[in-house]
Design a protein that fits this description.
314 residues, mainly alpha, Rhopdopsin 7-helix transmembrane proteins, three-stranded mixed sheet, 11 helices, 3 strands, 76% helix, globular
């Protein structure tokens, strides 16, 4: 689809301000974000590799975890490289096409992660509440469908919002007060009537958050009731431990999302929004593999075995 004439007259570029107002912090911020991105890439790719090569981890739970790691890797790689580039170069421009593509991919992976966490909650529900039927219920076909769902819905949401963004005209300021091409900052510099796209984004965001949290809360209420009814203290502790990593990831992810929704849309809140966006787009993709590796005995055992094999080989 072609952009409107207003977009072409603008010179087809945006300028991402990022953290340019903090000139003295550009190098330290670059080093911090580079470290985070390196850990993110290595951590998520290592998680995928470990799950792939370790027979002990060939279960539905780790199948979903490998896809969560893939989504985190893609999400971070959509946003962080441009952030790093803007911290070391004076030219912080990005083409309108590049900006919209970045938004489209980021939207896709953000929605996919939201529902991938909900899918993992359902997996824990079956494992705790129907352990004897777990392998029957969570068949390879069902697992494939459950994974395909978040990806498909992410693409639908992304393409829908992107279509309406492409209809906007930009005939005024082309400065985006953020480090990422997020829909609200794109809309803020448009001279078109933003009502339809704002309403659409609001409806999609509310639907995604309410439906995914609804699935998560419902499943975990049933899980906790089931655990409390277990006669064995050891059984209760084991059941809780299987859910601990997932609950931690959910709390961090949805806690950050809800925090950003609650920030008032004012000029004084732009720094808070930027910091929240950094946590949401850059830090969380790094935290997930750390959470699952540090709090999961099976993953730690698999890593230990892999390291022992590599040591013997060397």
């Amino acid at each position: 689809m072609l952009l409107s004439e207003g977009n072409q007259s603008l010179g087809a570029t945006f300028t991402l301000l990022g953290f340019s107002e903090y000139a003295d912090l550009q190098v330290p911020l670059f080093l911090v974000f580079l470290t985070i991105y390196t850990i993110t890439v290595l951590g998520n790719l290592a998680m995928i590799l470990i799950i792939k090569i370790s027979p002990k981890l060939h279960t539905p739970m780790y199948f979903f975890l490998s896809h969560l790691s893939f989504v985190d890797f893609c999400y971070s790689s959509t946003v962080t490289p441009k952030l790093l580039e803007n911290l070391v170069v004076e030219d912080r421009t990005i083409s309108i096409t590049g900006c919209i593509m970045q938004f489209s991919f980021a939207c896709n992976f953000a929605v996919a992660e939201t529902f991938m966490l909900a899918v993992m909650a359902y997996d824990r529900f079956v494992a705790v509440c129907n352990p004897l039927l777990y392998t029957v219920v969570m068949s390879p076909k069902l697992c494939a469908l459950l994974v395909a769902g978040p990806y498909t819905w992410g693409i639908v949401c992304s393409l829908t919002v992107t279509y309406f963004i492409l209809t906007l005209s930009f005939c005024g300021s082309n400065i985006l007060n953020n480090f990422v091409c997020e829909h609200s900052v794109i809309i803020s510099v448009s001279c078109s009537d933003p009502y339809i796209i704002q309403a659409l984004c609001f409806v999609i965001a509310i639907f995604d958050e309410v439906s995914s949290l609804g699935i998560i809360l419902t499943t975990y209420i049933i899980i906790f009731v089931t655990i409390l009814k277990m006669p064995s203290a050891g059984g209760r502790q084991k059941a809780f431990s299987t859910c601990a990593s997932h609950l931690t990831a959910i709390t961090i992810f949805h806690g950050t999302v809800l925090f950003l929704y609650c920030v008032p849309n004012s000029k004084n809140s732009w720094l808070i929004i930027k910091v929240g966006s950094v946590f949401y787009t850059v830090v969380i993709p790094m935290l997930n593999p750390l959470i699952y590796s540090l709090r999961n005995k099976d993953v730690k055992d698999s890593v230990r075995k892999l390291m022992n094999h590599l040591t013997k080989f060397c």
